[in-house]
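Table S2 (text version). Query chain:
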Amino acid sequence: MAIFDDDSGKTEKPTPGRLAEVRDRGDTPMSRELLSAALLLVAALAMAVFGGWLMDGLSATMQYGLNVDLRDHPIAGADVSGACREILAVLAVIAAPVLLIMGLLVLTAFVGAYLQIGLQVSKEVLGFKLDRVNPLANWKRVFNVMAIGRTVFAAVKLAVLVAVLWLVLGDRWQVLMQLHERPFAAAVATVADLAFQITIWVAVVVFVVSAADWFWQRFQFEKRNMMSRQEVEDERKRSEGDPFVKGRLRQARMELLRQRMMDTVPKADVVITNPTHFSVAIRYDRTKNSAPEVVAKGVDDLALRIRELAKQHDVPLMEDPPLARALYRACKVGQEIPEKFYQAVATVLSHVYRLNGKVA
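Corresponding structure-token output:
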């Protein structure tokens, strides 16, 4: 079994369709290290803002709990319900700062994940799969480039954290060793200040180091989802449709439109011809149109079919090569003629109406 994945032949960058597909499967380039660093940083800042409130509550709770005089515990009793009320009263003292800090951490986790990968819901990740707990199936997943990279990154991060702890605690061992000689409140304040400094330095350093992991995750995400040229071509065919089928559908649509156009030729007032290469059928209905309308047009073979159909239904044919070419190029089927053709078309229609005995 190969330790490293074989990506031979995958030379094309993943398409948007492939990226959407793998994201639906739960494969995203999210850096958990960067998220952890953000949580540490927010925790340090939250402790700096709300730590005094929390420490006061903890101090009061500890002093209250160490007092063994039952006269100072009015709600405590000999039964279980009294003990529960005592515990709830103690928890109520620290509940507000604890819930506030926990809420900030939960919000940071959601915002940090959303900023990296957006909102992703994957049924495949939520569902249970037996191969996830199968050691043999996961062997290749453990021994690959990503696993080695994570191990190296963890070792680097551990070394950096040890260095930070050494720099922060290097000259404070004596203070820590003498905490038992100091008043309780002063000792708690010293420990809290030291914990804050350690947390803030660790968070900043991990945040900077995790930026490399952010780029690494995106590089690996794109690399493991690289596609071969054949896969790109297959996806293009799936998204756009098979060219042969599309051609047949386009041809069928053109035939349908052409047939509808030919059905309007018998209702035309006149067909203006080239006389051999162009044919344009004109109809003018004062109750529906403000100007004459092109109901059919064609060139070469289609022009011949229009002329033949016009003859079969006694639609007049008028030879005017310049006008026929100009109308063919300037007008679409179903479109009224432009104003610049009014005079020329009006002359043709007047002549046709006189021949048919119609009122112009």
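Notes on Table S2: The CA atoms of residues 232 and 238 lie 10 Å apart. Strands lie at 270-273, 278-283, 293-299, 317-319.
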